[in-house]
Design a protein that fits this description.
The protein is α+β, with helices and mostly antiparallel strands. The chain is 46% helix and 17% strand.
Amino acid sequence: MIKSRWCAAAALLVVLNACAKEAPGYDGPYARQVRKAIPELEESSGLTFTKLPVLEERTKDEVRSFIEAQFNEQLPPLELAGAQEAYRILGLLPDTLDLRAFFIELLAEQVAGYYDPATKVLYVVKDAAPEMREVTITHELMHALQDQHTRLDSVQTLKGDNDRMVAMQSVIEGQATYEQFAMMTGGSDMGLRIPGGWDRVRDLIRSGQSSMPKFATAPMLIQETLLFPYLSGAEFVRQFKRARPGRTPFAPFASSTEQVLHPEKYLDSLPDVPTRVTLAPSRAGTPVHEDNLGEFETRLLLFQLAKDQGLAVAGAAGWDGDRYQVVNTPSGSALGWVTVWDTPVDAVEFRDVMERAVEKRYGLKAASGGTGDDRRWVTPRGRRVTLAMTTLAGRPVVLFEDAPGASTGRVIAPERITLQEP
């Protein structure tokens, strides 16, 4: 299954052996492995195949053509350019990176097979390494099973809500990862049955991915967002299965990466659903792209800029919604970003960590942005950066702007922001 935005259908490079009876009926390619995997996946997941899966082989060139088509369909050029500009302004991507070309090469390097919800077919790369192909077939069979019980293509059609999309991907990939390992280790809680526990699983996946040359050269944002659905998603599913045995983790899907990072916020009798932020068109220029980051990417941003994991985790904690807008001004691209927080203390902590991150990124003196609710800088690169705290509809909000120094006016004025409680 090829996903939109950053998530590749990457195979897990860990091979464990298991023995089980074979399911009769399937006579297509890789019959021995498919017959063996079907009853094991059904027993581990509690789901049942309503019809036999369909497998077909593809060459690497055919897979590459599919990847390009999916990439263009799910992330059209204008949307890709807008997202890329947002991440460049935030400092998460280098200015020199050709994101489309890089991603196609990266996905082509990683994909040994994929499940396509549109055709209901599991495609396997003919000349993939045997160990990679074997684990890929099992993983993608789980996607075929999921697709018989929920709509996997609903992720691909979701637009303008990056955080929710990543959360849904995390449930899909997390369940496939968890059930695959649970099957291979004899069921039960896989984190307890694998030598070294769940942390060892995370290390094995990371080391396997990092051995791929294109992945190894990818910016931190790309590496982490590729791995997040598999690693954090599997941990989410592990905790879900403990709390709700016999239930499926996609009824409903997690609504945010906050819920994936903190499963208790999904499992609570009153789930913690993000505040919806709506932005009116900016008066500073022409809006060209709009989306959100979520707690996960907010954490990545703080880590990328501040280089301190503890600060990044603490600064992103208490996130309750966000929205950014990329604007073309007469002087160049600008970005306005609105974040909503659970409490004023959370908002202050984020503002303080973000302040340190801005000063570290631009080589500015500590506390050079002033005091009070508004912090302002003019950077050596001629950018005007603002970090302001305010209250909207009774909620603590932090406004961040990064704009050309010659531009005038606020990118996003507070009066043009609407908050909708869940």
